[in-house]
Amino acid sequence: MAGAYCQHCGHRCFVYRVTPDRSWAGHMATCDKGAAHDRAALGYDHSTAINPVVVTHLVGALTAATGLSKPRAQ
After folding, report:
1. pTM of the model
2. Bridge partners of 20?
3. I need a surface site. Which of 11, 35, 45, 68 has the fewest CB within 10 A?
4. Interatomic CA distance for residues 23 and 36, integer angstroms
5. Which residues contact 17 (CB under 8 A, 6 or more apart)?
6. How confident is the model at residue 8 (pLDDT cuts 50, 70, 90)?
7. Neighbour-count burial of 45, counting CB atoms closer than 10 A to its CB (0-12 exposed, 13-18 middle, 19+ buried)
8. Vertex 35, ends 3 and 45: CA angle to 5°?
9. How many C-beta neighbours within 10 Å does residue 10 have?
């Protein structure tokens, strides 16, 4: 996302998130005004949407710890 600046704060304050219902995925702003805009538009902001990197990491750690195989994609 090189070159993209937030229209609310003028910084590169974006993080990649997925809404819990998986109806939307993309970059969300982390500044207060940008987060308020995301909440109004999507019903979620960066703190309430899913961070797919963390989820992938947790699945890998649980798989390694339990010896279970990764769940199949649905």
Report:
1. 0.71
2. none
3. 68
4. 19
5. 25, 26, 27, 28, 44, 46, 49, 50, 51, 52
6. very high
7. buried
8. 105
9. 9
